[in-house]
């Protein structure tokens, strides 16, 4: 437990040392507040031309994706720093061990994402989902945080490459949105992307669609399988 507390303290110090990491941490809060107060104003301004409320589920779904993605990027950059400093190799010979370190690095961003999501999702004020649905969506979306972190740290060789790759991760946010507008049943192919499932879950929840729990269950299966693969990949690369 002391080792976990020490790692958490070091993570907090690392975040405060770099403005970019601070921005990633406060990004979900800033985005939520912007949507809560600016979207209604924008809706009124554009009401004569089109009904922006029709796109509220898409905006809400994007928030669901951005929260864990930004947290995942934050942890991903910390992982890159630790790998460059060979901290992973040092920790595997401590009582925490290899598995303890990887469990911490998987659970910490997920827990942080759950906290952010449970607090922020109700605050956006433009989607109507029950508290139980918020919890289910938050739990599912939380897996994206370690997925994003391990994807970033598993592909990039340094922080410069990590910054470039993090910009490219935006494509994963576009795929669920494109699938939303598709009428073909083949849009389910987008399900190979973990971000597809929480996005569609909040859309289905907002519409009162019975497919909500199918997206939740399917998402957990897909994201856990991807997470296991990424953990193994990172372990081999960092060793």
Q: Please tell me how large the radius of gyration is.
A: 18 Å
Strand content: under 5%
How many domains, in number, for the residues? 1
H-E order = HHHHHHHHHHH
| Count of alpha/pi helices | 11
Helix content range: over 70%
Quick one: overall form?
Answer: globular
Low-confidence stretches: none
Question: What is the tally of beta strands?
Answer: 0
Helix vs. strand class = mainly alpha
Average pLDDT taken over every residue: 82
Largest sheet: number of strands, sense, barrel closure: none
Distance between the termini: 24 Å
Describe this structure in words.
- The protein has helices at about 1-15, 20-45, 55-85, 85-90, 95-125, 130-140, 145-155, 160-170, 170-180, 195-205, 210-239.
- With about 240 residues, the protein is mostly helical.
- It has one domain (about 1-239).
- Helix 7 (about 145-155) runs parallel beside helix 11 (about 210-239).
- The longest helix is centred in the first third of the chain and has 29 residues, at about 55-85.
- The two termini are about 25 Å apart.
- The model has no long low-confidence stretch (mean pLDDT about 80).
